[in-house]
Amino acid sequence: MRKRVVVTGLGVVSAVGKTIPEFWNSLIEGKDGVQEITVFDASSYRTRLACEVAGLDPMVHFSKKQARRLSRCDQFGLVAFREAWQSARLDHDRIDKERAGIILGAGSGGILSVEKYFRDFYRGTGRPSPSLLISYSLATTTDLIAIESGLKGPRTTTATVCSSSSVSIGVACDMIQAGLADVMVTGGSDSLCEVSFGGFNSLKLIDPESCKPFDRRRQGLMIGEGAGILILEELGHALRRNARIRGEFLGYGVCADAYHLTAPEPNGEGVERVIRAALDHAGVSPDEVDTINAHGTATPFNDIAETRGMKRVFGERAKEIPISGIKSMIGHCLGSAGGIEAVATVLTLENGTIPPTIHYEVPDPLCDLNYTPNQSMKKEVRVAISNSFAFGGNNACLVFGKFEKKDSRGPGFEGSRRIYLNP
Question: Which domains does the chain carry?
Fold first, then answer.
């Protein structure tokens, strides 16, 4: 019998909000997080715009020494972790720390700090600080959270580019269902850096104006940054401590396109397979899905492939399902995208409101689904999925559900989901 896994804590840092309430209000109001980049000189690029996190004062959250040593990515991750842990109302002194672990997704990580180190080195402006190199490892944010929290259970960092955080959430669930942990900190953190920004510019994948997912005028993505952290917990553990349950993590899917290093498989075959795998793992039928958080990068081919894949899964009903493309507001946060969007998906379940896809004005005949254009909508949501697709065809899909202690769907289900004879 498979253990049930619930969400008891959420934390976020993003261009449109540095706390859960601010983030959620910005999403449902359709706030655009785009601004001119300040963390490095972007004057030589096609665009100087990104969804940069503004106004996060390290001195408010960290000591002077910590603020100097921590990379931007590490700061985001620690701030989001603290909010998630506090919202879960977990007591450091009362949990079994050997049964509480951390699995985060990573992207560019602390490369911004490494870039500063080498700029200082080659300019000869004095001895560059070695602390700028500490965050070179993609695992640094995971390690720092472990040190701060004292959690000694399963710990690792996943790196599947833009699906890293989504994969980390799935693997964190596996740790609980395998009986290796009762509590898992998961999600991801990432920050802007010139290497990734320059790379996407060279591929001509950045829109110089605004991010317009599924719109016919779309020219590419808008790079973002931030962190999204979830606390996953085994249901019995959560109930014994009377935790506030924000939602249930029902299942996930991971697959590969095996097609191209950057381009998606054009017919949406990989998209279809990963969504079907996630629904099967969750014990959910396509007819039960109430909303979709789309990957929605606003790159010309990705949006078409995702639309085709969703049609292959949901058939004619695909046109009835409200779809959110929140990268239109928060940008594409790369290694942390799946974590931030998972947070948004849980909030959608919790609040019964579908965030909009902003900047959607000109329909594309090849992207002809309901993308919730420009205005949020109220809707009861019992099951929601969140898509993440990455370079190299690294696909992931997460399934979340509204928590219910019991379900009347008959034999084959335990609690709100089906019984799996092979855990």
Answer: 5-418 (3.40.47.10)
